[in-house]
Design brief:
The protein is an all-beta fold. It has no helices and ten strands. It has a ten-stranded antiparallel beta barrel with strand order 1-2-3-4-5-6-7-8-9-10.
């Protein structure tokens, strides 16, 4: 899909506001062609700030022994979102991915390191109505020609 079609606007992540159960599948080992996935649950709460121009969430993976926080900011001039991840194990603000939305599909790309290896990173978000959403992370070690999906989250809204 043409990346120019993916643009950001205030409120794009407002669908996440609230409490979620998060069903996770994560590859045990990346970059080796593995199909061995671990599954685990998480609980997330998300907020919207500054009129939908900032989105923050905190997710707890109790069985895995860590938590994470995502901070998303909208660059109004570029009409692009920057998504940063922080996990409780390192406390580091990881390099962002940038992108936007085309309909209910969000696509975000960036550069990072995985176990000392440079990788291209791709996040894909799918809004699936009021009670569901999904997110996938994939890495490429060959400049984006081939992608390996390594973490999939399925979100189920919890009603208060």
């Amino acid at each position: 899909m043409d990346h120019k079609l993916f643009v950001g606007q205030a409120g794009d992540f407002d669908f996440l506001v609230g409490h979620w159960r998060v069903h996770n599948r994560r590859l045990r080992q990346r970059h080796v062609g593995s199909q061995d996935w671990i599954t685990f649950e998480g609980l997330q709460q998300a907020w919207s700030h500054l009129g939908g121009r900032v989105s923050v969430d905190e997710v707890h993976f109790e069985s895995q022994g860590f938590s994470g926080c995502t901070v998303r900011t909208l660059d109004l001039a570029r009409r692009q979102w920057a998504i940063h991840w922080i996990n409780s194990r390192s406390g580091r603000l990881e390099p962002p991915v940038h992108g936007g939305w085309h309909g209910d599909r969000g696509e975000f790309h960036g550069e990072d390191q995985d176990e000392g290896r440079p990788v291209k990173v791709r996040f894909i978000w799918l809004r699936q109505g009021l009670g569901a959403a999904s997110w996938e992370q994939a890495f490429s070690t060959d400049g984006g020609r081939h992608w390996e999906t390594n973490w999939v989250m399925r979100f189920e809204r919890l009603h208060a």
